[in-house]
Structure formats: C-alpha cells, structure tokens
Design goal:
The protein has about 250 residues and is an alpha/beta fold. Helix content is about 15%, strand content about 30%. The protein contains four helices and 18 strands. Strands 1, 10, 11, 12, 13, 14, 15, 16, 17 and 18 form a ten-stranded mixed beta sheet that branches. It has an eight-stranded mixed beta sheet with strand order 2-3-4-5-6-7-8-9, with helices on one face. Helix 2 (about 75-90) runs parallel beside helix 4 (about 115-125). The longest helix has 16 residues, at about 75-90. It is globular, with a radius of gyration of 17 Å.
C-alpha cells in the first residue's frame, strides 16, 4: 500500500515524530535563527518577517507543450500562485524570497498570462520581493521585485543550489525537489520534504507540476551530515531521520 499522506489511505501512515511543531509548522534553529518549516513547503523566519519558497516552476505546462513533451492542464501557474498567496495572507511577511527556478524557463516567464502577472503584482505590492536566479531562469524577467544571484540575511545565505562546503552561518537552498519515502508495516509513504542538518536547509519544490528527487539519493550524502533530518509534508510536518528513508 502506498500513500502520499494526503489522500485515501493517509490514516494508515506510519506514526512520525513532530518535534517543535507549532501553528506555524515545525520549528528548527539554524545558525541561531528560529525558522518554521510550513506544511505548504514554505520556510518562514518570523524575526525577519521573511517567507521563502523554492522551485515554483511557473509556466511548466506551457514549456512542456512548446517542446512537444505532452499536454498538461494549463492551470498550474495560478494554482501555485494561489497557494503562495495563502501563505502570504496567513503570515503577512515583509519580505518574500523566491529561491530560484521560479519559472520553467525565460520564455515561460515572458509568456505569463495577464491573470498570473496581475497576481504576482498583488503579492509583491507593499513588501520586498526577491527573485533568486536558478538554473531554469538565470536572467531578469522584468517582473515586480528585485533579481539576485544569491543573498545573505543575517547569519543565513540564500541561494538556489547548495554549496558543497557551506559558508560560515547557515544556508537555505532549493533545486533538488527532495521527496522522502518511508516504509513501515507494509505501508509506503512518499511526501515532499525539507532536508535539514546543522548547516543547511534544502527546501522542497513549491510548484504544482514538479517532480522530486528521492531524499535518500547519494547526491545528498555529499551535502548533508549523517544526522540530517527529513521533515515530511502533509496536513502537518513530520520529522524522521534521513537515514531511515528509502524502501
């Protein structure tokens, strides 16, 4: 039996610990900064009134159709933006960081429909809005907000791809779309997840049409220490040692 923790069969999922869970999500500390890992896949830093999301991949359905890779219902851009709008409405951040691959490519950014452009404008109004460059969107897209290759806020560095050797302080990155898979008593649960160790947080993809890389993949061995934790997303955020993942 397999479940993603949100549909039929979710009630039978393995019990997972939820340390530090609050109304804002799972609470962690990185380089002295108190952060909250939200069930949506967003990261919230209350002391800085900062909301961070990774890998929105707006315009993915359009890009796939343009490249002849198949047709998907073209609703993912507005769905992603509405979920982001729900986080903004709930938290009222003064700063929003979109941590790279916000668009599936630059043509997708340039081809956004008027409704999506208007929604982005509404979300960015009255707050600092930062687009961090990703591998899918390496250049300015002419949208509200500022565009950065990477940035630092207090003790934390924000960039799209994690560095092999983190700089002093803590690092927040995205790019890999981590998903955790956990098996117990014949039930396999697969969920998007944050990956966290003493130096860094790797965010899950926030976009609607995004795949994922298994959190037990060896690529993460080079980035995370052995005590790394996975925070699996569902109705709540559940913590499990990364070493326990895989099936």
């Amino acid at each position: 039996m397999t479940t993603d923790g949100t549909g039929a069969g979710a009630h039978a999922a393995p019990a997972l610990s939820r340390p530090g869970e609050t109304a804002n999500g799972a609470r962690i500390t990185l380089a002295g900064a108190e952060l909250f890992l939200r069930p949506s896949g967003a990261l919230y830093w209350p002391d800085e009134s900062l909301l961070c999301v990774g890998d929105l991949h707006l315009g993915r359905a359009e890009r796939l159709a343009r490249r002849g890779a198949g047709l998907l219902p073209p609703y993912e851009t507005l769905d992603t933006l509405e979920r982001l709008a729900a986080e903004v409405a709930a938290l009222g951040p003064r700063c929003v960081i979109c941590l790279g691959d916000s668009f599936d490519d630059l043509l997708a950014a340039e081809g956004l429909e008027d409704a999506a452009l208007a929604r982005i404008g509404e979300l960015a109004a009255g707050r600092r809005w930062i687009w961090v460059a990703g591998n899918h969107d390496p250049g300015p897209a002419g949208l509200p907000g500022s565009y950065r290759g990477a940035l630092s806020v207090g003790p934390l560095a924000f960039r799209h791809v994690a560095q092999a050797k983190p700089a002093p302080g803590g690092e927040v990155s995205a790019h890999y779309h981590p998903k955790g898979r956990l098996a117990r008593r014949g039930i396999v649960v697969t969920r998007r997840c944050f990956l966290v160790d003493s130096h860094r947080v790797i965010l899950p993809a926030f976009g609607t049409y995004t795949g994922g890389l298994d959190a037990s993949d060896p690529v993460f061995d080079r980035l995370l220490d052995r005590e790394a934790q996975a925070y699996l997303l569902g109705r709540t955020v559940a913590c499990v040692a990364r070493a326990r993942l895989g099936a």
